[in-house]
Amino acid sequence: MRRRFTTAGLVVALIVSVLMGTGGSASADSPGDRRDREQMAGVGTVAWGPCEPGSTLDQFGAECGMLSVPLDWSRPKGEKVQLALSRMKADPSVPYQGIMLVNPGGPGGSGTVFAVLQAFVPDGAGMAYDWIGFDPRGVGASVPAISCDADYSAPVRPPYEPASLAIEKAWLTRTSTYAADCARNNGPLLAHVTTVDNVKDMNAIRFALGQRQINFYGFSYGTYLGQVYATLYPERVRRMVLDANVDPRRVWYDGNLDQDPAFEVVIDRMWDWVARHDDTYHLGATATEVEQAYYDALHGLAAEPEGMIGASEWNDAFVIAGYLQVAWPDVAAAFAAWVNDGDIGPVTDLFLGNTDVADDNGYAMYLGTQCSDARWPRDWKVWRRDNTRVAAEAPFITWNNAWFNAPCAFWPVRGGHPVEVKGKDAPPILLLSETLDAATPYSGTLEVRKRFPRASLIATDGGTTHANSLAGNPCVDDPIAAYLADGTLPARVKGKGLADVVCPAAPEPDPNPAAATAASGAARSLGVSSAELHRRLATLN
Predict the structure, then answer these.
(1) CA-to-CA dists, residue 192 to 133, 406, 416, angstroms
(2) Using CA atoms, how far apart are residues 163 and 327, in angstroms rounded to an integer?
(3) Residue 100: DSSP 8-state
(4) What average pLDDT does the segment 384-406 reach?
(5) 466 tagged catalytic
């Protein structure tokens, strides 16, 4: 049975945190402890129990629980919300190193399943930590969970490209209505789902689990959580791995525009790869021919959809290729099935596999956080001007991205001012990035390295996959293991705009899709593949 902390419970938690020896002062009444007592007055305890029978977490032997935290952190004893947590416990035979919170990004991504990443760290280095997955407030199994319109993503939708005034008006009606639905359906929670709210929740998880400090592993938007946590609570950070870093200068309107030319670079590489395997796909012997086949099909489906696939759904099915290089064979095979054989089934499967049309919780929470974190243009003319300019050079995803974010132009909660990320007081942390990551362009990781003077950066040169650590590249994964084992980081080189370690990119995939989805050794023994976990990461961001 869950209960609120009493004063006695708070004292016990503080004593436990001292005895665990996971970092911080040994004093039982430090200034940080006094702040905890004040700030955490409304935080509950976690009653761990079994996870959903048959789920991935259950198969891995994880525990699950709920944590009560304040809805409004300015009123710690007021109304509560509940966070869904998971835990993969540390191996008791090795020295304990504390909790490792993990967040897969989004924002709006369910994070509970990612506690199983414990087993994917080489050399068993993850086993010294309790890995804590969590669904951020409003997400997944957390209570309440936000939803705005469960049918919003249902096909067939208007084409993304506003080639006519009618299409533009249709999307403006859809997106403004969606924002209004979010306001109507979600009550006061919608005003309390910012990054800072989530960071304070992370600090509450630390406190509830009796820890003076956290270790943290964040992907994509999760890196921004880490950046802000390390800015607001630098003394509470022990170790931190940030993979695919958000640029803190570009939160969020500008950052979304930055993605569009970066995706164009990656999809051009895929067109070239498909052309070099023309004997398999028969879509064109040059990248230009393959690209033309893609746009011919898109325009054809705009005029006459096939089943549930119109122009927007066609584009959605291909977006995974911009996130995940290992997906190229599946995307190319589906592409060929439609263009060469008139079979829309594989494209439909891709669309449904990467777009949850039945549940808009993740999308609603993505907007809930991004729209309220920062100011967005309220004048649609600004959006039209900026996206028209970018689309002229980068048409693949620009209008898809624009309409995805467009409800922020009408959002009922006025955007605030992002935290100024500062890492000067943070301990040594590890940064990771692929240099052609489209979702979080490499320039953002370089900016984070500059702001965190004790950080080290491992860059994968020419890699196009988003958030690709713990995926089997020893040049990347072995230093992660060393850092988690004993805090060892690669030496930091002098200068700005540089990586401290440069790793080779993974080889291009075999055109045989079966070869691309083979599981790693850890995956074969544990029943889930690294590729599957990274596919989930890709579809969250």
Answers:
(1) 21, 20, 12
(2) 30
(3) E
(4) 98
(5) yes
With a pLDDT cut of 90, the percent of the chain lying above it is: 85
> What single letter denotes the amino acid at residue 445?
T
Structure tokens at 443: 């320039």
Name the catalytic one among 68, 135, 192, 466: 466
pLDDT per residue as tens digits for the range 85-134 = 999 999 999 999 999 999 999 999 999 999 999 999 999 999 999 999 99
Q: Give yes or no: 33 in active site.
A: no
CA 487 vs CA 216, 238, 319, 479: distances in Å: 13, 9, 37, 10
Strands in 501-504's sheet, in edge-to-edge order, are 49-50, 63-70, 80-88, 130-135, 99-103, 214-219, 237-243, 430-434, 456-461, 501-504
Q: Which of 68, 142, 220, 456 is catalytic?
A: 220
> Is 437 designated active site?
yes
What is the Cα–Cα distance from 369 to 306, expressed in whole angstroms? Answer: 35
Task: Tell me the pTM.
Answer: 0.91
Amino acid letter, 131 = W
The size of the chain, in residues, is 541
Distance in angstroms (rounded) separating the CA atoms of residues 357 and 311: 16
Alpha helices in 374-486 (DSSP H): 380-391, 398-405, 442-451, 474-486
| Distance, CA of 60 to CA of 522 (rounded, Å) | 12
With 0-12 / 13-18 / 19 or more C-beta atoms within 10 angstroms meaning exposed / middle / buried, residue 530 is buried
Name the catalytic one among 437, 469, 477, 534: 437
DSSP 68-88: EEESSTTSTTS-EEEEEEEEE
Which two three-digit tokens encode residue 195?
A: 């990054």
**Beta strands 501-504 and 456-461: pairing type?**
parallel
AA identity, residue 504: P
DSSP secondary structure of 184-219:
HHSGGGGGS-SHHHHHHHHHHHHHHTT-SSEEEEEE
| Alpha-carbon gap, residue 487 to 481, rounded angstroms | 9
| Residue bearing the bigger pLDDT, 531 or 475 | 475
Q: What is the pLDDT of residues 218-235, one digit of tens each?
A: 999 999 999 999 999 999
> Hunting for tokens 């891995």 — which residue is that?
60
